[in-house]
Each structure stands twice: as C-alpha cells, then as structure tokens.
Amino acid sequence: MSQIAVGERHTMTYRVPENRCVPDVFPESPEFQTVPRVFATAYMVGAMEWACMEALRPHLEPGQGSVGVHVDISHTAATLPGMEVRYECTVTEVDGRTVWWEVKAFDDLGPIGEGRHARAVLDQARFEAGVNRRAEQAEVPGLAG
C-alpha cells in the first residue's frame, strides 16, 4: 500500500433507489416489513464503507484489496428513496495495514449519520484462499462456485 495520509478526504454521492429501504434488508422478516420505506441503516453503512473503499483504492498495490474490520455508526435521520446522500470520509489514523476513517452522511435536508470505520488492507488472493478454506470446512460453496 502506498502512503495514505491522516487528513486525506474523499466525497461520494449516492441517490437512494427504491430497493434500498428497510423492508428490503430482510424481506423474510415480518419485523422489517413493518418499517416505512426509508433508507436502511444497513445500506447507509454499506455506502459509508464504499466511500472509504473508493478513497483507499488509489493507494492499493496490484493484488491488494481491503475489508471492513470495524464499524461504529449512528443513523440519525430518515432519508426517502430518490434523495441523494453525500458521504464524506476523512482518514484519522493509519496503523500498519489498518486505516481508520471518520465518516459522515448528509441527505438533501441535512446530516443523517456519522461515526468511525476501519478497513484492513490485505493480499486479495490470500484472503480469497482463506475464504475458500472456510467454505470447505463449512461444506458450503466457496468463491469459485
């Protein structure tokens, strides 16, 4: 990984589609089906990770990837489908292969969430081999199928 500096910032925007609402997270859950069709926390957090992944990508060497290893996020306001969300991430710490981010999200009306996220940089082939070993142990299909 090439050097990524504390204070480095990245912004990403995402328009919330109709299928990223709370009932879509677990369609089989009756509890999730009782919540109005607003942007789901799970998808908001996923998009925060995505923004950090985008920011980290130029610093990765060929064959490297990253995985999320920590999430501490609050979701403070409901966002409706069709609204645009702006994600801002700022590097707050680099600890070896782990990069810590402050993340914030804003929709058309103001702040909707914030917190911390950490991503670990790894060798993609080694990671995939480990996933496939776990799949064999669990007797489920691995990454190859």
TrEMBL record:
Spans traversing the lipid bilayer: none
Residue ranges annotated for the Fluoroacetyl-CoA-specific thioesterase-like domain, each copy included: 33-124
Superkingdom field: Bacteria
UniProt name for this protein: Thioesterase family protein
Pfam family, one: FlK
Matching PANTHER family: BLR0278 PROTEIN, THIOESTERASE DOMAIN-CONTAINING PROTEIN
The species this protein was found in: Luteococcus peritonei
